[in-house]
Amino acid sequence: MHDPPPAPAEHPFPNRRTAGLALAARLERLREDDPVILALEPGGVPVGAVAAEVLGAPFGVIAVARIGEPGRRVGAVAEGGPPLIDHRLARSYKLDVVALATAREEAENAVADRAARRTTPIPDLTGRTVVLVGDGIATGRAAAAAGYAARRRGAARVVAAAPVATADAIAYLGELLDEVICVRCAPLAASLLQWYDQPLLASAEDAAIPLPGGERAQDADGVLAIPEGVRGLTVLVPPVDLTVAEALAGAGFATLRLEHADGLGQAIERVRARPQARGLAMGFVGLGQAVEPVLAAGEQADALVVAGGHHEPDPDVLTSITAPTLLIAAGEDHIEQRWVRDARALLRRCETHTIVVPGATHGFPEPRALERVAHATQRWFGTHLASVDGAG
């Protein structure tokens, strides 16, 4: 398995047919294996159909349901396969056995319903090389579940493929499947959205079973999830990494994944006015391009985490911040490390701490690099965020 090179977000795939053609070129070396292309619903269908057409390969669709909404995904179920659940992550969300069993049963029912409505059966996979195709692989859990299902159907070799995938998903699937193939690597799960002029196929078409407990709302500001026994509210400014969001949710923090970085101050005021958010201390998270707007709004935060800064530090902004601030830099990016040093020198009115992620480059695209960022963020907020009024 070779790590694919990252590409600039200003050159997205205009549509899924173009993405399918690009992926087909990467899959060309599998032609002699006479593979079967199996698309993951929903977004993998248009991509996989194009790849199958180019390769002259049999094509099918496998029903998949994700367990948990984005940012709280704990597993997936694929047609004909066993449920795949990250029990450690489920425990971190304080899901009891009954709640998890209910979510799993709902996912299995959703898969059975989709399979029953499909008019074309899955091709025979016995002894075949099976290529599981999605339009983007964020966590890899759905592809892993489909991989187990394919092996149950007799597949001799299972390959996960997508036009774009995250580094963490590539590493995760590389340990479970025979190979992972993608055209480009996205450092953040949320940045998968930047690779298509058209949005990823999801929402009503995507079988995602929400987890019980807490509250969840979506509006023009973004997606707000508040677990039971919430410890504080964290605001993640786009581009939002789902690895960080999952780590914070698992530690009992509410997460607001903003839709846009513009108007951050106004969005925070609206969130503070919500009954569920009253009395909660608030932490801001910014990675890469989000560092600048997070720091600009830093006076409104109770704690800050910024990673991957590249812009020129603004002395007026930084000298006004009093919230404890964690600065994270990539170990192989000297611009980031210099930025951290310069920023820390200007943050004179607050507690600061610096973490350097060894071996990481700008954007933290390396496998497990973002996990280190996520865990550091979780620990920082665990120490510095508490309900302002002592509740929660």
Automatic annotation (TrEMBL):
One of the record's GO molecular function terms: glycosyltransferase activity
Pfam families the record matches: Pribosyltran (PF00156)
Signal peptide boundaries: none
Keywords from the UniProt entry: Glycosyltransferase, Transferase
Domain Phosphoribosyltransferase: 28-165
SUPFAM superfamilies: alpha/beta-Hydrolases (SSF53474), PRTase-like (SSF53271)
The protein's name in its UniProt record: Phosphoribosyltransferase family protein
